[in-house]
C-alpha cells in the first residue's frame, strides 16, 4: 500500500517535470545600446507564460546588472560583461518590473500569464 502511494507520487512528479520541460519556453532578451531588445527590436514589455524562462544576454561592451524588486519575482543577476547571459524562470502569474542597477534608464515589464 505504501509502495503504491510512493509510486504514484514519483509518477506525478516525473509527469510534471516532463510537462514543464516540453511546454515551457526560453526567450532571449538582449541588453543592447542600454536597451532591452528581443530579436533586434527594443522591447518595453513582454508577455510570457508561467514556467517560461528569460535569458538576459549582455550585448554591450560594458557591464549590466539586471534585477527586479517585484513581489512576483525578486532577483539580482549581478554585474556581467558582454557575451555573458543569465536566466530567470518565472513560476507565478503577475507582473515583474525589470531594471538595470547601472543604467536607471533601462526598464521593462514582464507579464506572466
Ligand atoms: Cu545596464
Search tags:
single chain; 113 residues; alpha+beta; Immunoglobulin-like; five-stranded mixed sheet; elongated; binds copper (II) ion
Summarize the topology:
Elements: H1 2-23, E1 26-32, E2 35-38, E3 41-42, E4 45-48, E5 53-58, E6 64-69, E7 74-80, E8 85-89, E9 94-100, E10 107-112
Parallel strand pairs: 1-5, 4-10
Antiparallel strand pairs: 1-2, 2-3, 5-8, 6-7, 6-9, 9-10
The protein binds copper (II) ion.
Brief characterization of the structure:
The chain has one helix at residues 2-23, and strands spanning 26-32, 35-38, 41-42, 45-48, 53-58, 64-69, 74-80, 85-89, 94-100, 107-112. The protein is α+β, with helices and mostly antiparallel strands. Bound molecules: copper (II) ion (CU).
Order of helices and strands: HEEEEEEEEEE
Across the major sheet, the strand order is 3-2-1-5-8
Count of strand segments: 10
Query: What form results from the Cα inertia axes?
Result: elongated
Structure explained in plain terms:
This protein is an alpha+beta fold. The model has no long low-confidence stretch (mean pLDDT 93). The termini are far apart. The protein has one helix at 2-23; strands at residues 26-32, 35-38, 41-42, 45-48, 53-58, 64-69, 74-80, 85-89, 94-100, 107-112. The protein has one helix and ten strands. The strands form two sheets. Strands 3-2-1-5-8 form a five-stranded mixed β-sheet, with no helix packed on it. The protein has a five-stranded mixed β-sheet with strand order 4-10-9-6-7, with no helix packed on it. 19% of the residues lie in helices and 48% in strands. A hairpin with a 2-residue loop joins strand 1 and strand 2. It has a single domain (25-112), classed as Immunoglobulin-like, CATH 2.60.40.420. Bound molecules: copper (II) ion (CU). Copper (II) ion (CU) binds at residues 31, 64, 100, 102-103, 106. Copper (II) ion binds next to loops.
